[in-house]
Amino acid sequence: MESVKKSVKNFGKGFGIWLILLLLNTRAGESSVNGIKIIMDTLLSIILIGNNKKAREAALGISALTVVVTCLKLPGDVEMLLLIGIAVLGVMVLKNIPDMEETSEAQNDYLASSYETDDELPWNTRNVFWPFEKYSFSPDQGICIQKGVIKRTYMKIKTKNIQIRINQTIMQRIFRICDISFLSDYTGFEYGSEVLRNVRLKYAMELSQMV
Q1: Model-level pTM?
Q2: Strands across the sheet with 162-167, in order?
Q3: Any idea where the domains of the chain sit in the sequence?
């Protein structure tokens, strides 16, 4: 059942990405060029929902180039030549990107345990107002923070000697969300500067019980 849910989730994500690319890349009255773009958008969507980080970054760059070409409003034949050139460039770049299985074992374990298998972790959520900021927790890894879209930041917070502090503004109380910060068991003062922002209150309560 879990694999079915994951497949449906990936399909929804892929379809959403494909639809956005389609809206950004196509123009009326260019059926031949639009046909190539639809094929490219489909392939890019498949890559963008994959697990290979470098391939996703390359696909984002290729997507940006196709959007720029569309915005330039060039003649159809010129636009087609540019798209073919971008496609060839994309194939060359993607061909030189190693598969996830070929990456180093340490990096593979790190990504798999911390960020690529959130569905298997006991606790994971994200910033309600900025979905590209993800948070997760496991007893072995501690709290993991992933921020960013194209350029990403990964951080870990060990939870052995810290306490959870839940903070709410008036606006956050209305939406039943909160910020989570950390206190040191030794000093009682704030531990580090990282804050989990705009987390649903029920998830924050779950995390405080786990930690």
Answers
A1: 0.45
A2: 162-167, 177-184, 196-200
A3: 1-96, 123-210
